[in-house]
Amino acid sequence: MKKIILFFSLVFILAQTSCGPAAESRDSMHKRAKEVQDSIAKSIKDAIAEAEEGMPTAAPATVVDTTKK
Q1: What are phi and psi of 16, to 5 degrees?
Q2: Among the four 41, 45, 49, 58, which has the fewest Cβ within 10 Å?
Q3: Residue 4 pLDDT > 80
Q4: Secondary structure class of 3 (helix, strand, coil)
């Protein structure tokens, strides 16, 4: 009988600890993930803007009509 009580108490403790983080932890994880996501998006936008600044502006290409003989 003692072994059964010990077994069920261990199963109960294991079930309680393996359920995942508390709601407060999830909220803070989601907040941190949003901050990281925004930071990455800003870095990408800055890199694109910097690349566009360094590109030379080309004159519009003239199209030659080759269908006329």
Answers
A1: -70, -35
A2: 58
A3: yes
A4: helix
Distance CA 62, CA 3 (A): 89
pTM: predicted TM-score of the whole model, two decimal places = 0.48
Do 29 and 21 contact (CB within 8 A), yes or no?
yes
Distances (CA, A) of 1 to 6, 8, 9, 13, 15: 9, 11, 12, 18, 21
Q: How far apart are the C-alpha atoms of 41 and 63, rounded to whole Å? A: 38
Would you mind telling me the total number of residues written for the chain in this entry?
Answer: 69
Among all chains, which residue has been given the structure tokens 């009580």?
A: 5
Which DSSP string corresponds to 14-41?
HHHHTS---HHHHHHHHHHHHHHHHHHH
